[in-house]
Design a protein that fits this description.
This protein is 49% helix and 14% strand. The chain is an alpha/beta fold. The strands form 2 sheets. Strands 5-4-1-6-7 form a 5-stranded parallel sheet, with helices on both faces. Strands 2-3 form a two-stranded antiparallel sheet. Helix 1 packs across helix 2 and helix 4 packs antiparallel against helix 5. 33% of the residues are buried. The mean pLDDT is 97.
Length: 202
């Protein structure tokens, strides 16, 4: 079957998100910042947001363990937007080109629920997606096969091989491959453009 639908991951594919961007402002030196992100607000801890925990409840549990870092921990949620620096170079333009060709655009992202409405208002290109599956809303995260199946339901039950799934993490790509999706492991806009052209979407 011909690929006719594009399904995007968001972080590190569409949006340039890096927690260190915020914490460089908060900590006076890189070593203190790196210790905090490596030992306190770790990516494993953040994954609980993606799985459905609110910023407030996830912060409270961590503050109980590390009360000396209360302000820094709470900043993860209260200053979330400061972790972004716009779009990944070139991806927004590709989405705009796809939209101009009326390619059905969807997104499937491991993402907290709390800041989504603010992100949607701030990043205009997100409004080009017909539907965005947010992991926290479902309390399941990639690479759980169930979230991919939910995305197919949300899109309208297309055959998986007609959907090009784009993600920067190989584990997420492998899960989509196993379900029969067409896939592209994102490493930059140039490679994505070539893949979109190869599939006849551009």
């Amino acid at each position: 079957m011909t690929v006719s639908i594009a399904l995007f991951d968001l972080g590190h594919v569409v949006l340039d998100w890096e927690p260190s961007r915020l914490y460089t402002k908060i900590f006076d030196d890189d070593a203190a910042r790196d210790h905090f992100l490596g030992e306190i607000c770790t990516m494993d801890w953040h994954t609980r947001h993606d799985a459905g925990a609110s910023f407030a409840e996830n912060a409270a549990a961590l503050i109980a363990q590390h009360p000396q870092y209360e302000a820094e921990i709470r900043a993860w949620g209260t200053r979330w937007m400061e972790m972004f620096d716009g779009y990944i170079d070139g991806t927004a333009e590709l989405i705009e080109r796809l939209d101009a060709r009326s390619v059905p655009l969807y997104a499937l992202s491991n993402m907290p629920s709390d800041p989504w409405e603010e992100m949607l208002a701030h990043f205009e290109v997100l409004q080009r997606f017909r539907h965005v599956v947010i992991s926290a809303d479902l309390k399941m995260v990639k690479p759980d096969p169930a979230i991919y199946l939910h995305a197919l339901e949300a899109i309208g039950r297309p055959a998986p091989e007609t959907v090009l799934f784009i993600d920067d993490r190989e584990t997420n790509i492998a899960a989509a491959d196993a379900l029969g999706f067409a896939t592209h492991h994102f490493t930059g806009a140039a490679g994505l453009e070539a893949a979109l052209e190869a599939h006849g979407l551009l």
